[in-house]
Design brief:
Layout: H1 11-19, E1 23-25, H2 48-62, E2 67-72, H3 80-89, E3 93-99, H4 117-137, E4 141-144, E5 149-150, H5 158-174, E6 181-185, E7 195-196, H6 201-211, E8 215-220, H7 230-239, E9 243-248, H8 265-277, E10 288-291, H9 300-319, H10 323-331, H11 335-346, H12 351-360, H13 367-374, H14 376-383
Helix pairs in contact: 1-9, 2-9, 2-13, 4-5, 7-8, 8-9, 10-11
The structure holds D-allose and zinc ion (2 copies).
Amino acid sequence: MTIELQTADTTAVREALAAQTIELPSWAFGNSGTRFKVFAQPGVPRDPYEKVADAAQVHKYTGAAPRVSLHIPWDLVDDFADLRSYAEGLGVQLGAINSNVFQDDDYMLGSLCHPDAKVRRKAVDAHLKCIEVMHETGSQDLKIWLADGLNYPGQDNLRARQDRLAEGLSEIYAALGPHQRIILEYKFFEPSFYSTDIPDWGTSLLHCMALGEQAMVVLDTGHHAPGTNIEFIVAQLLRVGRLGAFDFNSRFYADDDLMVGAADPFQLFRIMNEIVDADALRPDSGVNFMLDQCHNIEPKIPAQIRSVMNVQEATAKALIVDRAALHEAQQASDVLGAHSVIMDAYNTDVRPMLADLRREHGLDPHPVGAYAASGYAERIVAERVGGAQAGWGA
Ligand code: AOS
Ligand code: ZN
Ligand code: ZN
């Protein structure tokens, strides 16, 4: 049985899609590259205000990207309340605050896990500063990704580093306001290659559980070894109520940070299928769906628009899975029947439904084309000279 979207009652699916929001990273709009070359693109933002303005364009044409994450100190401004009202004036909000404790020379051997207490103090203070910023921006999430790790066996004590990490995190956690959360990201390698201090979801989860209910795991889809079953991790974290956020992107090899849904749209669908199955798509479910991407060779605003659309398409396919038929086939031990329910949904073209939904909400059905026709890209090229680099990696 294939799914006939034309005749099916898609009201609930449309409502769920209309409520879905995706958070954009400020660093996606600046110049970025690899360690070989950063290709400068004309018209890129020169400051955080212009990054927010570009992010607002993505929201304008998709209607689904109402928040933008900031990175401190890349996005440091004198007056965050002013940046906040500027964003709100453009119809978007400031989202997660990303701490950056990896760019300073002091952090060569780590930050919260560093053997020297002075460096650990500095790293904790950098996070406390982020929490102050969050009070001004109205942000809920403090996103922590640490570059901490070791390159050589014996370089430092693995267990002692976990103890220092726990200690630093608990001081940061204690400074959170009642509605704020730590979202703790893991990554299996890079920049360290022998051992990383938060390499996997289990380590992140253990620290989150020790901290308390306001600490949640961030799953960056590019941060796993090839072949990892990411949807299993999603299901597991949802079971224990600790999936705080996604950093969506695509990987072919390592932490490629390419557009989500470009490398493996089926994997993205399988992830969203777990989300829908656990009823975690609801805006109040506590899962923040963020992008963490860099657009080194493609134009940045259309790439973010495309990425939002890719998430929407995967979500729509997950929403149309016939859950009753799936359950029935699973209970009847009908292996192929159950599998076909999943494949039927995945193979359905949901683009016309999404185009229709946009029309219904007063948007152009084709966001990339509408943006291209708007003249914004030409305007920023003319107006902005000397755009900024996003910062190292993502
Ligand atoms: C680093 O690999 C992580 O993906 C971080 O989430 C984040 O992108 C970084 O802090 C920005 O460079
Ligand atoms: Zn990330
Ligand atoms: Zn990453």
